[in-house]
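Bit of a strange request maybe. I'm writing a small parser for structure token strings and I need a real example to test against, not something I typed by hand. Could someone generate the tokens for this chain?
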Amino acid sequence: MAQFAPQETNGDTPTKGRKSKKGKKSQNLHSEINLSKYLFDTYNNTEDHITRCAISFLLKTGCKINDKEGKPEKFGQRRRKLEIQIQRLTEKLAARIPKGRDLTDTQ
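Reply from user aminoacidic:
Good idea to test on real output. This should exercise your parser:
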């Protein structure tokens, strides 16, 4: 019976630690929402393409910036791969267009 009886502690319960973490998480979430809202508003009000690209990058990455420098070779490979993919999709779409017959009867 002594095992199942609630025991008193000095107030250092793990639930208090969890509550403070939830408060920090909700505070961080609230600040992230405000930041995202600010970025969306700035994006909509900006005409400069470079600024828009930077804002969209921040929104895509969750407002995090990578400290590592990108490798130009990998960027070139990724770009070429996407160019080939776009070319294939364009060819597929062109092949899907019906050739049809001439309905105007002009020769």
